[in-house]
């Protein structure tokens, strides 16, 4: 009887969450955006980051509108309420900057995020909405002589967003203020509307912004916490420009990004799968009955694999013969055993090819990188063990002896 013991182990990467502490003084003007990736066995084909940043403002209340549009909103971190101070607005002002004037950085911007281990990736963000509460300094019906909001602004009520902005689908308020949210197309210019009547004062009690994210492919990222930031300026002629009548408490806004990546790499053998008996095709009795020498001795051992990130495979041997493991009998006879692997569907090698009976070698050549196309959840693979024809002939020169050895197959997440 030929015995081969297979030992397997995984190398796991431990990671920790690092909390950030924000003081109310020097750290004012900071907002955090967090996204995470966790493999989901219930939805293995969905391999994207999930934005776990709690929305505030518009998307907090209009979830059904924001979610399908991949839109999120945050309160602008520019000091306490009210966010701004303002001043009177003259009727029919010729300069759009003297009234409602809103311009935001609506272009896509790339931010580098880096893990503690030094791995780097890129996140993209654009500001895709602007809103809040606008106070007019008086009763709109008194200001307009009964005409209301339709008469106050050149573009009418604020649910009719001035071009190039687009209505956000939600509007609220009273005769003293309006709560609004406008969507902003990519690379848009300023959105402005002209006051048709003198306003005692215009200011924004609070301002909210909407944003869209493009996150990297988490399947190509090692486990870890990735951090990065982008800083915007606020004020006339700056990234966030609210015209010449509005003054914000702070003129710097920093968005801090935290991407949390947690991968799965798990291998399981069936009970008894760590002991391999190499047999000829049909078993020994069939070959003895035929009176012929077996062409090979082999065993295909199944295993289940769950993997959401890249990994490599290595081989370690109790007895080394060339680039593979060996078997030895009690008389000192030695023969090599060839070991190969077939990985489940959804895993590719470094050349983007399926993995079918790929040899595992002590030098690691050929098994340096395997990459999932999607989360592979408890799919079956095989380890192939084989002693070739010439080596079988050598073994049969010592009838009645047992050849045995140990091989360690390693699935390693540290690529």
Structural class: mainly beta
| Spatial shape | rod-shaped
Distance between the termini: 38 Å
Give a short account of the largest sheet: 11 strands, mixed
Low-confidence stretches: 1-27
Overall mean pLDDT stands at: 89
How many DSSP H or I helices?
6
Keywords: Membrane, Transmembrane, Transmembrane helix
Transmembrane segments: 12-30
What do these coordinates show?
The chain has 415 residues and is mostly beta strands. The chain folds into 2 domains: 2-11 and 265-412, Immunoglobulin-like (Sandwich); 38-261, no CATH class. Helix content is 8%, strand content 44%. The protein is built from 6 helices and 28 strands. Strands 2, 3, 4, 6, 8, 9, 10, 11, 13, 14 and 16 form an 11-stranded mixed sheet that branches. Strands 17, 19, 21, 22, 23, 25 and 27 form a 7-stranded antiparallel sheet that branches. Strand 22 and strand 23 (334-342) form a beta hairpin. The chain is rod-shaped and about 110 Å long. The two termini are 38 Å apart. The model is unreliable at 1-27 (pLDDT under 50). The chain crosses the membrane at residues 12-30. Keywords: Membrane, Transmembrane, Transmembrane helix.
Element layout with pairings:
Layout: E1 2-11, E2 30-37, E3 50-51, H1 58-61, H2 63-66, E4 72-75, E5 84-85, E6 87-89, E7 100-102, E8 109-115, E9 120-135, H3 140-144, H4 148-152, E10 166-173, E11 177-183, E12 191-193, E13 199-214, E14 224-233, E15 247-248, E16 252-261, E17 265-268, E18 275-278, H5 284-290, E19 297-307, E20 312-317, E21 320-321, E22 324-328, E23 334-342, E24 347-349, E25 358-359, E26 370-372, E27 376-387, H6 389-395, E28 404-412
Parallel strand pairs: 1-28, 2-16
Antiparallel strand pairs: 1-18, 2-3, 4-13, 5-15, 6-13, 7-12, 8-9, 8-14, 9-11, 9-13, 10-11, 14-16, 17-19, 19-27, 20-28, 21-22, 22-23, 23-25, 23-27, 24-26
């Amino acid at each position: 009887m030929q015995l081969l013991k297979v030992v397997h182990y995984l190398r796991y990467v431990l990671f920790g969450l690092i909390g950030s502490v924000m003081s109310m003084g020097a750290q004012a003007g900071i907002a955090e955006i967090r996204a995470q990736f966790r493999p989901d066995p219930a939805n293995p084909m969905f391999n994207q980051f999930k934005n776990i940043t709690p929305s505030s403002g518009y998307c907090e209340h209009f979830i059904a509108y924001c979610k399908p549009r991949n839109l999120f909103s945050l309160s602008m971190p520019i000091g306490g309420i009210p966010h701004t101070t303002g001043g009177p607005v003259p009727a029919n002002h010729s300069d759009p900057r003297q009234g409602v004037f809103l311009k935001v950085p609506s272009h896509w911007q790339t931010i580098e995020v880096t893990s503690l281990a030094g791995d780097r990736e890129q996140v993209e963000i654009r500001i895709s909405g602007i809103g809040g509460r606008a106070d007019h300094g008086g009763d709109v019906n008194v200001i307009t002589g009964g005409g209301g909001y339709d008469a106050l602004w050149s573009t009418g009520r604020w649910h009719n967003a001035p071009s190039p902005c687009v209505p956000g689908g939600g509007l609220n308020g009273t005769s003293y203020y309006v709560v609004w949210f406008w969507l902003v197309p990519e690379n848009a210019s300023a959105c402005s509307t002209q006051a048709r009547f003198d306003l005692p004062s215009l200011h924004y009690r609070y301002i909210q912004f909407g944003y869209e994210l493009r996150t990297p492919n988490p399947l190509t990222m090692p486990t870890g916490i990735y951090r990065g930031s982008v800083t915007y300026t606020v004020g006339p002629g700056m990234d966030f420009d609210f015209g010449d009548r509005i003054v914000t408490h702070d003129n710097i806004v920093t968005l801090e990004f935290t991407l949390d990546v947690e991968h799965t790499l798990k291998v399981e053998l069936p009970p008894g799968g760590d002991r391999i008996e190499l047999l000829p095709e049909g078993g020994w009795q069939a070959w003895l009955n035929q009176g012929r020498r077996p062409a090979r001795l082999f065993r295909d051992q199944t295993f289940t694999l769950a993997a959401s990130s890249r990994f490599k495979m290595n081989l370690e041997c109790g007895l080394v013969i060339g680039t593979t493991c060996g078997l030895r009998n009690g008389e000192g006879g030695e023969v090599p055993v060839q070991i190969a692997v077939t990985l489940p569907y959804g895993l590719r090698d470094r050349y983007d090819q399926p993995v079918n009976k790929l040899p595992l070698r002590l030098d690691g050549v050929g098994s340096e990188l395997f990459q999932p196309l999607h989360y592979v959840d408890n799919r079956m693979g095989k380890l192939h063990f084989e002693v070739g024809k010439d080596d079988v002939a050598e073994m049969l020169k010592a009838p009645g002896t047992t050849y045995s050895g140990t091989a360690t197959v390693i699935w390693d997440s540290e690529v």
